[in-house]
Each structure stands twice: as structure tokens, then as C-alpha cells.
Specification:
By secondary structure, this protein is of the alpha+beta class. It is built from four helices and five strands. The chain has a five-stranded mixed beta sheet with strand order 1-2-5-4-3, sandwiched between helices. Keywords: Lyase.
Length: 180
Amino acid sequence: MNEIWFRTGEATVLAAEGQFTDAMPEVLIGSVRGPVGQAFAGMMGQVQGHTRMFVVRDINQMVRPATMMTTKATIQSLAYVELLGGVVQAATGDAIVDCLIDGTLPEAMADEICMIVMIWLDPRCADHAELDQADLYRTNYEATKLAIARAMKGEPSVETLIANRRNVKHYALDGVVDYE
């Protein structure tokens, strides 16, 4: 397989009714010797409110390819950190290993590439009395697998984006912009 230099992907998997567990990871995949590797190494410090950590499935089980995760939302509480470093990290790790198993990520290149995953964890999760942690796992697992697959396949393609320009619009544009 050719060297993987710089691939990006994203996905959204929506929460179950009444939950704030939508998952929207953004993934960057590339060679440890290229710009992704440099960005990865540059993340080896902490930024207040945006914890960075290796993705591990459990204690002493760091995933391959080496993956760094960070948040898109500012961390405000220990409960948020526990969800991020617990259920969300485990779901992300499981998805990465399953991508190796199913061939989405090339096993032979697991030590030649690295990944950065930006995680959306809704701040309301930390204080939600009826938080469904199984749904939090589900959304993050499914979205991470999908984002990685899209990155590896280059999806959506330029052709798809052009073909959908007038019939797909951002949800925030409802009532703002009329494409017709």
C-alpha cells in the first residue's frame, strides 16, 4: 500500500431521544514522518480546557495506530473529564481496533501512521441525571468508525459534493438560505 500522507474524515451519529450524546469526531490520518506526525508530536502538551490524551482501550492498552484525542468543547468539570477519558475514549479505541480488524486501517502500516481525533462531547452530558452511557458509547463508536472509513476512502468525493450542492445544506441554514 502507498504511504498515507494526509487524510481527513468526519461523521455525525445522533443520540437517542432525550440524550445529549451526539458524536461528531473529526479525524486526521497520516504518516508519522509527515505533517500529521508533526501535528501529533506537537500535541504532547496540555492546553487548559482541552485535554489531550492517547487513545487507550484500557490500562496498558494504547491503540495502534497511535492516536491522540482532544475535545472540541472546553472542559468545565471533572465529570466531563471522566466521561471523556472513560466511555468516549473506550468507544474511540474500540472503533480504531475494529478498523484494523476489518481492514479499514491497514494493519501492516499501524506503526507508520498516526491519527488525531477531535471529539465532540456535549457539555450537558456531564450533568445529565439520566445520561445513557451505552448510547454515549454507541454514538462515539459508530461515528469514529465512519469518520475513519471516510478518511481512508476520501469521502465525500469532490463529485459528490458538486452533485449535492443545491440539495444538501447545513441544518443551521433552514429558514436562512433557500437553495431553490
